[in-house]
Amino acid sequence: MAREDEIKKKRLSKAEKERIDAILALLDEHYSTEYKCYLNHETPWQLLIATILSAQCTDERVNIVTKDLFVKYKSVEDFANADLSELEKDIHSTGFYRNKAKNIIACCQTLLREYHGEVPNDIDALTNLAGVGRKTANVIRGNIFHEPSIVVDTHVKRISKKLGFTKEDDPVKVEYDLMKILPREHWILYNIQIITHGRGLCTARSPQCDRCFLSHLCKENMKNIRVRK
């Protein structure tokens, strides 16, 4: 895949650009424009481990687990030298605990061996770590290094499709579609705002389109209105 700085912006019609700008303005108006991470952490390596644990698990559950986990394991070295079966028990409630424990240990061993225990900021270096895909890498790059990044979780993928920003299901393809149409300076904010929107108004089970401030700009909602007519 092309690197972020090689992405060519998509040519948009004036009307579509105005629609996108209006959506972003409303997101800024209704939600905070401050960067916010939902995973509790004090260091880059803690966020890396928390993000690995967050796969197929809620942030709330991860925060409950890491509250004690980061007291027991106080450093990258502690995780690198952890007993696999013991770590599995410590993170059991996050699900997929066997793979997560194995990946966390391997990831921290690589950090010590190749990066002096520091978390790298390069996308390729990050995705070469055990258990780290583009989503995890972009969480780290956005929240720790403040590199413009788009994190495609279930909310971002689902709502971006509703808004007509992408037709893709593959998270990497969704990420690149969004990078082509959204201004770079809004990438991180879009992640935060859409996750908030997906947890509040536009939930997967019961989207509240009648209360949504984006309903008049949402392509799926406008299509549904035309069908009902």
UniProtKB/TrEMBL annotation:
<dbReference type="GO" id="GO:0006285">
    <property type="term" value="P:base-excision repair, AP site formation"/>
</dbReference>
<comment type="function">
    <text>DNA repair enzyme that has both DNA N-glycosylase activity and AP-lyase activity. The DNA N-glycosylase activity releases various damaged pyrimidines from DNA by cleaving the N-glycosidic bond, leaving an AP (apurinic/apyrimidinic) site. The AP-lyase activity cleaves the phosphodiester bond 3' to the AP site by a beta-elimination, leaving a 3'-terminal unsaturated sugar and a product with a terminal 5'-phosphate.</text>
</comment>
<keyword id="KW-0408">Iron</keyword>
<keyword id="KW-0456">Lyase</keyword>
<dbReference type="InterPro" id="IPR003265">
    <property type="entry name" value="HhH-GPD_domain"/>
</dbReference>
<keyword id="KW-0479">Metal-binding</keyword>
<keyword id="KW-0326">Glycosidase</keyword>
<dbReference type="InterPro" id="IPR003651">
    <property type="entry name" value="Endonuclease3_FeS-loop_motif"/>
</dbReference>
<dbReference type="InterPro" id="IPR011257">
    <property type="entry name" value="DNA_glycosylase"/>
</dbReference>
<keyword id="KW-0238">DNA-binding</keyword>
<keyword id="KW-0234">DNA repair</keyword>
<dbReference type="Pfam" id="PF10576">
    <property type="entry name" value="EndIII_4Fe-2S"/>
</dbReference>
<feature type="domain" description="HhH-GPD">
    <location>
        <begin position="53"/>
        <end position="200"/>
    </location>
</feature>
<feature type="binding site">
    <location>
        <position position="212"/>
    </location>
    <ligand>
        <name>[4Fe-4S] cluster</name>
    </ligand>
</feature>
<feature type="binding site">
    <location>
        <position position="209"/>
    </location>
    <ligand>
        <name>[4Fe-4S] cluster</name>
    </ligand>
</feature>
<dbReference type="GO" id="GO:0140078">
    <property type="term" value="F:class I DNA-(apurinic or apyrimidinic site) endonuclease activity"/>
</dbReference>
<keyword id="KW-0255">Endonuclease</keyword>
<dbReference type="GO" id="GO:0051539">
    <property type="term" value="F:4 iron, 4 sulfur cluster binding"/>
</dbReference>
<keyword id="KW-0378">Hydrolase</keyword>
<dbReference type="InterPro" id="IPR005759">
    <property type="entry name" value="Nth"/>
</dbReference>
<dbReference type="InterPro" id="IPR000445">
    <property type="entry name" value="HhH_motif"/>
</dbReference>
<keyword id="KW-0540">Nuclease</keyword>
<keyword id="KW-0227">DNA damage</keyword>
<dbReference type="Pfam" id="PF00633">
    <property type="entry name" value="HHH"/>
</dbReference>
<dbReference type="GO" id="GO:0019104">
    <property type="term" value="F:DNA N-glycosylase activity"/>
</dbReference>
<comment type="similarity">
    <text>Belongs to the Nth/MutY family.</text>
</comment>
<keyword id="KW-0004">4Fe-4S</keyword>
<dbReference type="GO" id="GO:0046872">
    <property type="term" value="F:metal ion binding"/>
</dbReference>
<dbReference type="GO" id="GO:0003677">
    <property type="term" value="F:DNA binding"/>
</dbReference>
<dbReference type="Pfam" id="PF00730">
    <property type="entry name" value="HhH-GPD"/>
</dbReference>
<keyword id="KW-0411">Iron-sulfur</keyword>
<feature type="binding site">
    <location>
        <position position="202"/>
    </location>
    <ligand>
        <name>[4Fe-4S] cluster</name>
    </ligand>
</feature>
<protein>
    <recommendedName>
        <fullName>Endonuclease III</fullName>
        <ecNumber>4.2.99.18</ecNumber>
    </recommendedName>
</protein>
<feature type="binding site">
    <location>
        <position position="218"/>
    </location>
    <ligand>
        <name>[4Fe-4S] cluster</name>
    </ligand>
</feature>
<dbReference type="InterPro" id="IPR023170">
    <property type="entry name" value="HhH_base_excis_C"/>
</dbReference>
